[in-house]
TrEMBL record:
UniProt source species: Bacillus nakamurai
Region (Disordered): 28-47
The EC number(s) this enzyme carries: 3.5.1.1
Residues the record lists as binding substrate: 104, 137-138
Pfam families, alphabetized: Asparaginase, Asparaginase_C
Record's catalysed reaction(s): L-asparagine + H2O = L-aspartate + NH4(+)
Positions of the catalytic residues: 57 (o-isoaspartyl threonine intermediate), 57, 137
Record's protein name: asparaginase
Alphabetized SUPFAM superfamilies for the sequence: Glutaminase/Asparaginase (SSF53774)
Compositionally biased region (Polar residues): 34-43
Domain L-asparaginase N-terminal: 48-237
Signal peptide feature range: 1-28
Amino acid sequence: MKKRLMPIVTFITALLLIAVGCSQSPQAKEAPHQTKNGSSSKKGNLPNIKILATGGTIAGADKSKTSTTEYKAGAVGVDSLIQAVPEMEDIAHVSGEQIVNIDSQNMDNKTLLKLAKRVNELLRSDDTDGIVITHGTDTLEETAYFLNLTVKSEKPVVVAGSMRPSTAIGADGPSNLYNAVKVAAAPEAKGKGALVVLNDRIGSARYVTKTNTTATDTFKSEEMGYIGTIADDVYFNNIITRKHTKDTDFNIAKLKKLPQVDIIYGYQNDGGYLFDAAAKAGAKGIVFAGAGNGSMSDTAKKGAVKAVKNGLAIVRSTRTGNGAVTPNREFEKDRLLASNSLNPQKARILLMLALTKTDDPERLQTYFNEY
Ligand code: GLU
């Protein structure tokens, strides 16, 4: 009887040993952590990634698990966001800091400056290898582009958000945050400017935009394409040709305030009076979201030309969502500038920063051609 049991006991013991071996994570066995473009870091030598939380849906909560549009954004703090994804500890040393906890439609110039200054301060230190910013998706691209122009470091800066609140079935926040940390920890992410990570895609802050009110694949980069993807590993496929981070003229270290720049939308039967109203309210610049190739009705143009004569900078962008707005002689002679391929909300960000350097229309246009 005993003799017949022996092989069975040996077999079970062997199975148990294999099972114990398999249950250890690769990191626990000190195997290198790999990203496909060649990066590799050991568990004991993981990068330090700081998560700066600002609110949004990724920090949103509701009593109902099925509610994806009715919830309170900015309800959950950075510690809870980190605790929800303990797997991040396998790829980075993660720590958090709460900058604000707001809906991103309430993000203002003062908070933008505060955030960018903090990012620069952290990245100057050897203790921080990369930064992830959690943010509401509504104005995420504006903050990301502002950072793209004002961060003075090559270290990765990744902005992430989510479309479903943390309490929802199928919440996309945890995987977006995990992926954002993975990208921030990847050496290949260095020197690429501010990046936007949602829905397994990596977008450049210069090109990516929110395209859908509720869908999880809302961030698209239709004309230029994503610059990378995350499929367990991080893959970069594209390069950024526009000036960013260390190569820009903008240094916000001593800046207390940004000049007021407003956006005016073009439509049939519009009037020039909105330009007067913006000027009266203190605007130093106006972005016009024109139809087509930044076209303007005669009445809107009258208002814009008057504003230029009064010293305001006017930049024509487009409400179409894609394509470049070209200078065109008709507008150049009146010093009405062209946004190139920047959408209105990003053209506003660049114009605010450009106006801290110059009010000369020619120099302003150069920024739109190069950035
Ligand atoms: N409107 C909110 C915000 O932008 C929620 C949208 C979101 O984060 O997806 O913060």
